[in-house]
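Hey team,

Filing this mostly as a record. A colleague (T.K.) asked me to run one chain through the structure pipeline before their review meeting, and I want the input and output archived in the tracker in case anyone asks later how it was produced. No errors, nothing strange. Just documentation.

Input sequence:
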Amino acid sequence: MSKFSTDDLARWSGGAWQNAPVAPPEGASINTQTLQRGDLFFALLGSKADGHSFVGEALARGAAGAVVNRKFAKKNPSLPLLVVADPATALRAIAAGYRESLKATFIAITGSVGKTTVKEMTADLFATLGATARTRGNFNNDIGLPLSLLAMEKDAQFGVFELGMNHPGELAPLCKLLRPSVGIVTMVGPVHFEFFDSVQAIAEEKAAVLRCLPKDGLAILDAEGDWFELLRAASPCRVVTTALNAAADYTAQLAPETSGAFTVTERATGESAALQNSIPGAHNIRNALLAVAAARAFAASWEKVREALAAFQLVGLRWQRSEWQGAAIINDAYNASPPSMAAALRTFLETPAQGQRWVVLGGMRELGDAAEDLHNELGRFVAALKDVHLVTVGELGAWIAAGAFEAGLAMDRIEICESCEAAAAFLRARLHAGDAVLLKASRGEKLERVLETLTKT
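Output structure:
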């Protein structure tokens, strides 16, 4: 971890040390459970707890010091504390100060669907060019981005960071903090829809990442995206395009006989390269194209690109494969939205299965007033699939079942479950060797409990 001088931390934050630590802090943390010895602990006020209540625990676990408000510091005069007006504001200010000291090239990635996958792919490809920092997990908001920046080593050549939002106006401050020279926008769709009037409004918000780019920067966009023209118009710099079925700077021809295989053609050089994605689905080839375009802009060799994509591994609860009594289970319960649900279902149908196919779907959150209609629409999509059994979980999942039934899916192919445990019991009684199961829902639905319950017995 990079070390920070106590003078810099005070200057950047506008605060003052009350008993400066003996050794300079080596990292930043807001959570005592993940805190590393030498970290600077930020006592943030959360919706459920006040970080000031955990300062003692943080110091006992080896924190170099803590960033606290004046009230707490006055009551604890002997502790190593950086005293500020507001620790959350200080976290962002310190991250901004540290960002000013870094010489790396920064790549910002946003979008409604696929941004974490593209972030990880892009970082893996750039790692073939030099030391590369990346967003920690999905730390992509006004707290996560500063923490990710402060985890970056000073000598890193590249920083690949994911920027997320769920309210209007949230991306511009993140862009101001990161100051990227490369921007990538993945698929834009009705995600976090409850806080926006339209998908166009979401696209306008995502375009903030492009508007912040310098004139000599680079924007990388999917030419087939629904909002491509809006995004291109927002870009003040050179735009590089990608596509599967249209003219673009990087185009891919899929190899239908091999899942994940494709040939990419680079318009500028006329060169083509046969690549193998380690994860299935046409949507993931779209994701890969964005990462490839970014890496090639910095002269990554085709050989290194090929090696990195073939070795790529998804993080978290994304398309995790396992088996239960001969049945293949695909756990994709990390998150869900209307476009990501459709993409996952299409990819699931391409997955070999000797027996029956079961899709276990939970709710998609943050869809606002359109929630019931969008769940019903997803049900109609499922009903159009061939030879699929639908299992829904929870109140929102029941809306999916309603849409499927209205669209003609027979009731003997639909099971509505109130809980993950009930879905697991249903599957346990019906799954056979050779069957395939897909689990997908928004993160808050915790649909992975279906798998956890199923495999306990």
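Quick notes for T.K.: The chain has three domains: 6-86, 102-311, 320-454. The first strand starts at residue 16 and ends at 18.
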